[in-house]
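The data are quoted verbatim for reference:
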Amino acid sequence: MARFGSWGRVAASVCLVGVGFAPLVGCEGEIDGPPPAVRELPPLRPAPAQLRRLTQEQFTGLVRDLFGDDVVVPSSLEPDVRVDGLEQVGAHLATVSPRGVDQYQSAAQEIARQAIAPERRGRWLACEPAGVVDDACVERSLRVLGRRAWRRPLSDAELAGLVAIANHSARTLGDFHEGIAFALSALIQSPHFLYRVEVGAEGPDGVRRHTDWELAERLSFFFWNRAPDDALLDAAGRGELTNEVTYPQHVERLLADRRTREGVRAFFSDMLVLDDLDHLEKDSTVFEHFTADVGPAAREETLRVIEHLVFDLDADYRDLMTTRTTFLDRKLASIYGVPAPAREGFGRYDFPEGSSRQGILGHVAILAANSHASSTSPTLRGIFIRKVLLCGSIPPPPVGVDTSIPDPQPGAVTLRQRVARHLEDTSCAGCHALMDPLGLGLENFDALGRWREEESGMPIDASGEVNGVPFVDATELAQTIAASPDYTHCLSRTAYRYATGHKEEPGEAVVLQSVDEHFARDGYRVLSLLRAIALSDGFRRVSPPSAQVPMTSTEVSP
C-alpha cells in the first residue's frame, strides 16, 4: 500500500469509482487487490462504420514501406486533426480541402519521380520491361504494389485503369519508367491509399464484422502504426483474420514483432501530445541556454522510458508515474543538474531514492510543454493531468471571463497566491478547482523543468489534492495519481479510442468493462491491454455506416 502513497491509506474505507461508460466500483480493498466488481451492462452495440484518413506519419511510413526509407516525403500535406484528445480519432473526421488535394497530388508526383530512379526500381518493379509499352510487366508490378498500397487486392477494373494510365503516358513520353510513374502517382493520390476503409460486411449470422482486409490494416496500424506486411495480407487473403482460431495467432505475431515498439511510441506520442515538442519555445532572456533541440530530446526521453517499461521490463503501467529510471543526453542532463550518462546520444540514468524527480511528471517533455514561454502554468499542467492522465472533463470558460493571472503584488508574489484568485472568483472556481490544485503540485519545477526551492524569495508550497486525496509535493502527487483507478481506466479508454478511431459510445460499455478487467487481472501491463482490445468484439464488429460511405467501388480511369 505504501507504494502508492496517500491514496492507499484511504482505499480500505472509500469506494473507488472510475470514469466513463464502464465504472470500476469496489470497496474495502487495497488498490493492488483483485479487480473491483462491475455492474451488469447491456450487450454490445458497435459504433457505426467509418473511414479514417492516414495521418502524416502513416502516409510517410506507407510510402517508405513501398519504395524505401531514403524516399523524401513532402511535409506540406493536409494537417492532422486532434479530436477527443487524439489525432487517431480526428482521422475519421478529417477531410481533404481543395488545397490538400493539390498537396497530395504534388506529393504523389514527387514520390513517383523518386520511385522510378534506377537505384529504387528494383524494390518494387517486378520485371524488366520488354519495351516502351509492356502490359504484362506493368500489370504484374502494379498488382503486387497495389495490394500493399491499398491494403487489399485491386479489382480487375482498378488494375486495368492503372495499366491504361501507364501505357498512355509511356507512349506519349517514349519511356516505360516515365509512363509507369503516372500510374504510381494515381495509386498514391487515390482515396484508397489516403483512407482506411473500415465499413465491414454482414455475415450469415446477421452480424456485421470487419472483413479480413479491414482487420489486417486495423491490426497493423494499431500495433505498428504502419500498413500490413505481406504475411498479414496473405493471412487476410486466406480468410484467417475472421477465423476465431487463427485470428489470435496473428495478434500474437504482431505483438511479438519489433515494429510494435514503434507502434507503442506512436500511441503514447499521440496520447501525451509529444509531437508538439518539435515546436517548443522558451523566452531566451529567461532561459539563456534553451536551444531548439531541447523539445525533440525531451520527447525522446519520455518515449525511451515508456519503451523500457513496456518492453524491457513488461512493467505495471502505474510505474510510469513513479519510476526513477530515465534516459538522458547531455542537454537534458544539464537541465536536470545531473552527470550526463553518455558522451554522445542517450544513456540510462537512475535518480537516487529520495530524489524529487520521478516518473513522467518530472520530465521536461511534460513540464516545459505545459508551461508558458517564461513562467509555469498550474492551469496548463493541471489540465494535462486531469484530461490526459485521468480522462476527466473540464467545461470551457464562460464567455468573456478574464482568464489572465494578476501581476505580483504585496501579499501575492508567488504563483500559488496569484492563482488563488481563480478559486475565489465564482465564475472561475468551478473549473479551476479541477485543474490548479493538481498543477500546483509541480510548482517546484520551473517553465523549462528545472528544480527550484523558492519563487520570488518565498518557499514553494507544492501541496494539493487529487479527487479529495491530499498530497504534499510532486512525489506524493505522482504516487497518488498512480494509485487512482481513474489513471489505469483512462489508459484503457484512450487505447480503445486510438485502436477504433472514435470516442467510445454508450453501446460499447460492455467492451470497455471487459478490457478494464483484463488490464487489471494482468497487472496493468500495456501489451496485455493492447491484446485485450484487439481480441475484443468492439475492435472486430461494426454497425452499418450512419451515412453513405464512398469509395467502395471506385475505379481508376485514365
About this structure: The chain is about 45% helix and 5% strand. The radius of gyration is 26 Å.
